[in-house]
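Quick start: what a row looks like.
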Amino acid sequence: MTAGNVVRVSELNKSFGAKQVLFDLSLHIEQGEMVALIGSSGSGKSTLLRHLAGLTHGDADARRGMSRVDVLGNAIQHDGRLSRNIRRHRSGIGYIFQQFNLVGRMSVIGNVLLGSLGKIPRWRGVCGLFPEAERRRAFEALARVGMAEYAHRRASTLSGGQQQRVAIARALTQQARVILADEPVASLDPESARKVMELLAEINAQDKATVLVSLHQVDYARRYCPRTIALKRGSIHYNGPTHALTDAHLAGIYGAGIAEFGIAAGETPQDSFIRPGLLRAASR
């Protein structure tokens, strides 16, 4: 690990049967960055995030140990094998899913407390015996995302945007230093999506958490993420400042003429953002 890198991927390959979906992928992300991960459906975005979180492992490396994923200085996987300490290593990695991944029958506060499981003995979590300090942290996290008044509601009664804010509160309770958000606004209305993106940006700015967020909406990447990584067919097609992401880059990433993106030639990122939802069609 290079000093400052909190995410480092080297020569990662992934196949599902005969179909390879990631190809010799290498990248690094620095402490405190907020990075957008873009690309069309099937480009490998979700697969990459799952590897960073240790939810799956890459292909075994025929070149004897070149393949590696490190997060927060810990080896998540090496040469196609997950770390033996993967549960402990995951404790610093928050994962926010597109479909929220809440337990619907549980209360909101119960779901948020699940973020503490990596920091307490397993038996206490199984029995629901969370220390008072963890309960206090969970309520503070709910207040921060504007959901404290719903603490004792069943999660299944909430709207999609509310559920996603609860998922963010769970990551706050976890005290995650790296947050991986897998298309967290894809199923939300524009106003709910804006609130979720603003919360992620606030956590990045105030808590200095490193945030990698997978997005279909390039307009959100342009407004909230200083850096963008774009995947195309399992390889990195662009990796650099978001402000330098040109019309030609977008056409290459999505395989479409710029007119199909709904952005006029010479239009600024701010101009494109005021019309939320642009570029969704390009990702279908």
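That is the whole record. Confidence is low (pLDDT under 50) at residues 257-284. The radius of gyration is 19 Å.
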